[in-house]
Each structure stands twice: as C-alpha cells, then as structure tokens.
Amino acid sequence: MSYAKRDEDSDVGLLYHIDKTTVLQDARAFNDSPINARKCRVLLTKIIYLLYLGEPFNVQEATDLFFNVIKLFQSKDTSLRQMMYLVIKGLSGVAEDVIMVTQSLIKDIQSKQETIYRANAVRALCLITDPSMIQGIERIMKASILDKTPSVSSAALVSSYHIFNVAKDIVRRWSNEVQEAANAKASGSGFASAASSYMSSFGQSQNNPQTVVSASNCNQYHALGLLYLIRQHDRMAVAKLVQTFSGSSRGGGLFSGGGGGSPLQNPAAICLLIRYACKVMEEDPGSTHRIYELMEGFLKHKDYMVNLEAARAICAMPDASSKELYPAISVLQLFLSSPKPTLRFAAIRTLSNLSLTKPAAVSPCNLDMENLITDQNRSIATFAITTLLKTGNEASVDRLMKQISGFMSEISDEFKVIVVDAIRSLCLKFPNKQAVMLSFLSGVLRDEGGYDFKKTVVEAIFDMVKFISDCKDTALSHLCEFIEDCEFTKLSVRVLYLLGVEGPKTATPTKYIRHIYNRVILENSIVRAAAVNALTKFGLYVEDQSVRKSIYVLLTRCLDDTDDEVRDRAALALALMDNESLSKQYIRDDATFALPTLERQLAEYINSPLANDQEFDLESVPVISKAQEDEERRKIQTQETTPIPMAKTPSSQALGSPAVGAPSTPGAAATPSKVSSLDQQAVYAEQLAAYTEFSTFGTLFKSSSKPAELTESETEYVVHCIKHTFARHLVFQFNCTNTLSDQLLENIDMIMQPEIDDCGLTKVAEIPAARLEYNVPGVIYIAYEREDDGDFPIVSFTNTLKFDVKDCDPTTGEPDPEGYEDEYQVEDIEVTTRDYIRPTYISNFSEEWEPLAENEAVERFELDKDKAPSLKAACSLIIGLLGMQALEDSALPKSNATHILLLAGTFVGGSKVLVRCRMTFSNAAGVAFELAVRGEDLDVSQIVLSAVA
After folding, report:
1. Is residue 328 within 8 Å of 334, Cβ to Cβ?
2. Residue 729 belongs to domain with CATH number
3. β-strand 708-709 against 702-703: which pairing, if any?
4. Residues 281-325: pLDDT tens digits?
5. Distance separating alpha carbons of residues 873 and 887, to the nearest angstrom
6. Which comes out higher in pLDDT, residue 194 or 463?
7. Cβ distance 740 to 715 under 8 Å?
8. What b-and-e string marks burial along 397-423, b requiring 16 or more CB atoms within 10 Å of the CB?
9. The pLDDT value given to residue 672
10. What is the pTM (predicted TM-score) of this model?
11. In a domain, 253, yes or no
12. Is 428 helix (H, G, I), strand (E, B) or coil?
C-alpha cells in the first residue's frame, strides 16, 4: 500500500449505504487472477465495517465469504494480507469448517521471510482453533512465545492469555516458556532491528534508545501478565514472582534496588510488577517494609510511567507515615510543573486522592497546585482547586473561593460536582467561613446546571444546616428562593421536607410559610403533597397559636385540591391538629418499628398454621428511632447506586480482560457488610429457616451485630462465628474459608466443649459443612437448648475444627481420592448476658422509667484509669457489656467530670429493660458510677446488673 498523498475525494462516501448483498456478490473478486490488491482491500474494508455494525451473516453466507477470503493467501501484498486476517477472525465465530485454514496459518507462522504475517497468523490461529484441539498447536505456541521477534512473541502471549479460560491445564504447561520470554532482554539485531523498523513506520526517531528498548520489550509486559494469570491462586507463587522480577534473585536484598537487577526493561511491565507487589502487600502485611523499599527504588527509574505508578502505590499504602510518603510526594511535586498535561493530570489526581486521608502530607505542594488553578486543561485546574480546598488553611479560604468563582462557568457539571463536594468538606472544617461558602453555594444554585449538580449543592447546604447552627436561617432562606424556580421535582420535595423539619425550630418560622404555600398553588401534585406535609409540621410544632390558626386555614383550603393524595394529607393534618394525643402518638413520637424485621415476622405469622389461633406478637419486633431508620435507608440507597466491585486481577485490568468475580456456592453465608443492619437479621433468619432442624425454634430474637473472628485473617483456615438467640435456643453459625489452594476439605465439623460440664445448655442439632474448596466459604451450624426456661447460662466454649483433608494436584486442581483426618484449634466463644438482650429505642426515657420503680436493682462500681481513661470510654465499655441502645445522645458525654448514660433493651422473652448509669470521673480515681436497672421482671433486672458486676 502506498502512503503517498492522493485525491481523497474519490473515497468520499465509500462506506455510506453499504449493502450486504452487494458486498457478497462483489466477493467474487477474490477469485480473480491476478488479484487486484486495491479492489480487494476496499472490499475487505466494507466487510469489516459490516461486522463492526453488527450486520447479521447467516451460516451459509459467512462460510461462503470465509472461503472466498482465504484465497487471498496467494497474494503477497502486505496490507491486503493484514486486512484478510481481520476478516478471518471476524467471520470465524459464524462460518463453518474454519479449521480448514489452519495449515495456511501455520505456514505463515513458520515463514522466516515475511515477519509481519506471523503475529497476525498466531492471533487468527488461536481464535479459530477449537478448545479441544488446542493441544495440537501447543508446539507452535511454545515456539512463538520464545520467538525473537517481539510482535510474534506478544501475539502468542496475548492469545495464550485469552485461551487460558478454556484450556487452563495446557497453558499452565507453557509456564517455563513464558518465564523465559519475560526474562528476555533486547540484544542483537533481532530485537533492535525490529524495534527500529516498528518505530520508524510511525516517524519516531531511531536515535532514542529508551524508545527502542520500550518497543522491543513489549512482550515482557504480556509475559508477566500471563505468568500472574497462571499463578494468581497461589499466594506464595505470586510473592515469588514479584521477588524474581524485582531483581532480588540477581543479587541484593529482597526487593532491593528498585529493580536494578531486574530482567524487566519495558516500563509497562514494571508498572504491572508494581501492581502485583501491592497485591502481595495486601495479602501479607509483613512484607510492607520490603515492598516499600522496592517502590522507593522505582521512584528513581528513568521512565516517568514507572515513577508515577510507584508514587501512586506508595500514596495508596494505608498506614504510610509522612516520612514514607515524602519521596513519592516529592516526585509528584516535580511532575506538577511538567510541560506535559498528562503528567500534570496524573500527579494532581494522585495528590487529590491522598489529600482525602492525609491532607497535611500534601500541603507542601500547595504553592505548585495554586499555579495549576489557571491551567488551560480544566480537569487539572479542577483537581488543583479541590485538593487545595482539602489541604488549605482558614486564611486561604477567601482567596480560593474567588478563584473558584472565576472558572465554575467554564467546566462541566461532572467537575462542578467534585468542586462542590470539596467545598462541603471545607464548610465543616472551617465553620467560621460559612458565610463566604454559603454565599458561593447559593450563587451556583442559581446558575444553569443539571440534576446531579443541583442535588450536590442542595446536599452541601443541608449539611451546613445540620452541623453549623449559625447559618441555619440564612441557608433555609436560600433554599426557599431556590424552590421558587426549581425545575426538579425531587429537589423541591427534599427542600420542603427540610423546611418542615427545621423551619418550626427557628426564631421566625413564619417567613418560610409563604414560600411553602406558594408550592401548593403553583406546583405539580407531588410537590403540593410535600408542601402540605411541611405545613403540617409547622402547625404541630410551632407554639404560637396565631401561627397555628393560619396554618389551619391554609390546610383547609387544600381540601379542595384536584389531587386525592393532597386532599388526604390535608385531611390527616387537620385531624392531627384537632387531636393533641393523636399527634403525639403518631407524629411527635420518635420511635418506630424496624420495618424489615416487621415485614419478615408478619410473613412468618401469615404462613404459620397457628396464625388463626395466636395473636401477632408486636413486642418481638425491634424498636428503633426514626433517625436510625433514615440512616439505614440511606445506606441501602448508597449500596444500590454504588456497583459492588468484582474480584479483578491487576493483570486483567492491564490487559483489558473482563473482570472475573469471586466464585459463589449455594448455601454460602451472606456477607453482613453487603446489607444494612436492619436487613441483616432478616437475612440470617431466612438462612436459618431453610433448615428443618431449626423449624421448631420459633422467631429469631437476635443475631450478633458483628461476626467474631476466631482465627487470624492470614491463617490457612479462616473462621468467623455468629450467635443467633431464640426464645429457648442458641445457634452458633461458623463461616469457614479454606485459603489453601492445594487442599480440599470434606466433612467439616466444629467440636464445641463447654468449660463446665453442667453449663445449662444441651446440644440439640448439628449441621456440618460437606466440603470446603479453595476460597469458597462454607457454613457449620450448632444449636443448643437452655435446660431451664428461667436460667440464662453464661458459659465459654473451646472450639476445634475437624475435617478430612485431600491434597490437590497443583496443576490440574484435582483432589486425591484418599484423604486423612486433621483438626485445627480456633479461639474460644463466650455466651454472655448481652446475647440475651436486644437493643430497643424509646422516645421518652423518663416516662418509661418511673412506672418500673418496683423492679429496680442498683449497685455502685469503679473503673480504674487503665480500663476507662475517660467518661466516653466508660460509656463504650458499659454499652459493649450490655448490648443495649443508648438514648438521648447519652453515649457521647458533654462533660468531662459527670455524666448520665441512659440505655434501653428487650430481654429474651419480651421483657423490657432500662438502665440509668450516673458516673463521675477524676484523674486520681478514674470512673465511679452507680448502675440502676429497672425492668418488667425483677429477676431480669438482677441478671442485667450481674453482667457488669
């Protein structure tokens, strides 16, 4: 193909209005002799374009076209042959008998004259070869991996990477060849000439040795990625891989010298090595120091790509000190003044991420970042601004806000959201500057912008209202002005809700009523309904009778609304205003039921055969505050909108392969972190209900808030325990994971031995785990029954994991037919009083406390300074011992000398329990406190008191 200048007008519209039928008819041109190379290239381009558009080819059409195309193997035209390989690969998934072209491809691969054919032929051969026949091309693939031409070696390595999923055992046998390809360095004419010709085709200077080295060693990058793919399930093998290619095996200490003795010369390969080293560090915290030395060495590498990757890795270390971060930050600071926009962007983005957790470490770069505020690249300028907002001091706020105002109109909504989020954090950091920042936020709220941007601004103002009391009136006024001309219904509803909550608490609530009633007159039915709700709260919470009369008149007018939802809400509001006791019970009471648990228990009640004979026990449903409910709902919404990251290997990220999730198995325990705490017990109850052994236990009373770790996370077997409490039973759930890739465990059981024989608990059920494959969790259940209905045993269990071990073949993963018995000691488990108590929220402690005076148990205690160095620590200790709900923000003492802690809970069986703890603190004596427990049963009060004693 000639690259000379030509008349491009002749090709205008070449790919417009392409008809598949016409292309199939024109394919006869491939049979011409001699072959018209230019005509065939144009025709191949049309075929590729049709494939790109997803034009359907039936099997017969694809097969006929495929066998027409492969006749072009006769041509020696380089560009024509390259196009032919693309079409062969595109049609191979539909056409039949594509294996017929294998010999032609093998001939091209083994050709020594036409190097440019060979890499394309390797890729095409691997794509058309059936997985069951890959063994037949094994010799060719091994030879191609070791080929001295980098493009051929890379093609073989990448193709091996893609066929690994269908032929794992075969590709694993190529490990030695892949290792040799990764170790190969550019030397002699084979590498250098290929690199020079490759770079010269793109007009690059052949006099740049670094460029030549980078191009000639690209196969190292692909070889390293394939090596990791082969060894990724063996932690020791991955650690050895990092150790080998970091240069430690060629002299020097482990991970020493920043890769000075490493065989890797390709910068992309070194970046990949850095990512694998970070993975080793995550799985083995003991290697952190050695990995850090490796990263620090790579900061001095001659290629900027390696410098950036090493700096990013160091900044991502969770426990890195300022001293350890200093070398990486110094390198990034140099890149901030680079003439290349890509380097400036990479450096400022890394510093921006680091400033989220360690702003003090980034602050020395503030001067360089201020120079980037006026950068022509607005992405760089945005990151510079947001980073300065996190690292700057209070004195720089005014200057930064002026600079931000200057370029907000020049950036997209996506970057505006980032800026506003940074300002929201700054508002909470420097509350004295709230006037400047609130003025800025109200200004951008009036500017043009999409929903996400306006929502972010509104959320920022909401946080200021919540955490900075001095700006509440001004912020609410700005929000009132915003909803006068708001085009987003959701935002209007949210603002109206906030006005209803905060407006009645202000000194002049009447100034917000006009804005709210305007929404009843001017907006759609959804906003009108929200406005009625807001007016209702003014009518219920404002003490001024004249205001309440005005609200009553406004709500009466809403009874004539055209929408039934608005009318119903207005009617309910008027009824609540007329009946004080009704409003106190349903509106002012801050307690509510845990809806997921209520829903689950109602479903169990309806499906129970005894539903017609027994009343539903509402006392068994946990009670929480509305604030807790809102927080749990927010967490659920966050989880729904945030995608759960799949388990992705660094090599798959680098090579563009699809992410592979962690294996799942039926019956595996749900991860508590994936659900909210309100739904967590519902998940456990559903899991337990699947076993007939637990069907007679009744309703689940309580589950552990957190799984207890019975082993270290780095051990060969990881075991967590969750305790489930029923009316008369305790169920222990053991979540077990086998972290050894060369072992399969079968018949897994947990042997629980109480510290005393007569502990008051009798084992009634046991469900072992059938097998534990590598990294696939399994569950063991053991159930005990309380022997005496009035006895609540406090006991400790020693635990031993027993199982049969079958060793697995390291290459195939197949287990041996014969196994052997083994056991593994894990930590003890304690059953304490808190396992019989469920936290419960009540809105008015004093009203519930007084009627229970007859069933009171009181005792005085002392805590030395080692156990409780402050009142806050003492509160945390007592709450941890009892497992009850802290009320009225009493978990956070306001004074350093005296405090009263209020707790509420429900004892198993449904008995209400309240605790009042009066405590004092002195530097000499520590914490002294009086613990008073009241309940509906005096025996229960004594049991709860004994938990602290």
Report:
1. no
2. 2.60.40.1480
3. unpaired
4. 888 888 888 888 889 989 988 888 999 999 999 999 888 888 899
5. 17
6. 463
7. no
8. beebbebbeebbeebeeebbbbbbebb
9. 42
10. 0.58
11. no
12. helix
Both 786 and 878 in a single domain? no
Q: Quote the mean pLDDT of the chain.
A: 82
- CA angle 231/234/235 to nearest 5° reads 115
Is residue 656's pLDDT more than 50? Answer: no
Instruction: For CA atoms 848, 849, 853, 854, give the dihedral sign.
Output: positive
Residue 860 bridge partners (DSSP)? 930
368: which 2 tokens?
Answer: 């360089």
- CA dist., res. 427 & res. 415, Å (int): 19
- The answer to whether the beta carbons of residues 250 and 183 sit under 8 Å apart is no
- pLDDT number for residue 555: 92
Residue type, 653: Q
Token pair belonging to 83: 């196009």
Residues 697 and 743 in one domain: yes
Q: Is the pLDDT at 675 greater than 70, yes or no?
A: no
- Token duo for residue 286: 């003991």
Residue 916 lies in a domain: yes
- Res 832: pLDDT: 92
* Number of domains into which the chain is organized: 2
Determine the Cα–Cα distance for residues 658 and 680; give it in Å rounded to an integer.
31
Model confidence at 401: pLDDT above 60: yes
Whether residue 754 sits in one domain with residue 664: yes
Q: What count of other Cβ atoms lies within 10 Å of the Cβ of residue 75?
A: 16
Which of 815, 831, 847 is a domain's end point?
A: 831
pLDDT tens digits, one per residue of 437-473: 888 888 888 888 889 989 999 999 998 888 888 888 9
Mean pLDDT of 910-915: 91
Coil, strand, or helix at residue 912? strand
Tell me what percent of the chain is helix, strand and coil, each rounded to the nearest 5: 60, 15, 30
Residues 6+ apart with CB under 8 A from 808: 741, 742, 743, 744, 774, 814, 815, 816
- Provide the 10 A C-beta neighbour count for residue 525: 14
Q: How far apart are CA 870 and CA 893, in angstroms?
A: 10
CA distances from 41 to 17, 29, 79, 84 (A): 18, 11, 8, 8
Domain co-membership, 757 together with 870: no
CA-to-CA dists, residue 278 to 309, 346, 716, angstroms: 11, 19, 21
- Is a pLDDT exceeding 90 seen at residue 434? no
Find the helix packing angle between 564-578 and 545-557, rounded to 10°. 150
Q: Are residues 840 and 778 in the same domain?
A: no
Structural tokens at position 758: 């007569």
- Residue with tokens 């097998």, as numbered in its chain: 771
Are 658 and 790 within one domain? yes
Judged against a pLDDT cut of 70, whether residue 252 lies above it is answered with: no
* Cα–Cα distance measured from residue 62 to residue 59, given in angstroms and rounded to the nearest whole number: 5
Higher pLDDT among residues 741 and 116, named by residue: 741
Query: One-letter amino acid identity for 161?
Result: Y
Where is the domain boundary, 831, 861, 888?
831
Give the range of the structural domain holding residue 770, as residue numbers without chain letter: 652-831
* Residues 818 and 904 placed together within one structural domain of the fold: no
Averaged over 711-731, what is the pLDDT? 91
**How far is residue 815's CA from residue 818's CA, in Å, rounded to a whole number?**
9
pLDDT of res. 858? 93
pLDDT value, residue 54: 85
Residue 11 lies in a domain: no
The whole-angstrom separation of Cα 11 and Cα 9 is 5
CA nearest to 653, candidates 268, 172, 298: 268
In a domain, 143, yes or no: no
What is the gyration radius of the CA atoms in the chain, in angstroms? 35
Query: For the domain that residue 897 is a member of, what is the CATH number?
Result: 3.30.310.10
Do 814 and 678 lie in one domain? The reply is: yes
Instruction: Give pairs for 211-215: CB < 8 Å, separation 24+.
Output: 212/186, 213/186, 213/265, 213/266, 214/265, 214/266, 214/267, 214/268, 214/303, 215/150
Residue 453 CA to residue 413 CA, distance in Å, equals 6
pLDDT at residue 16, as a whole number: 63
- The predicted model gives 809-826 an average pLDDT of 84
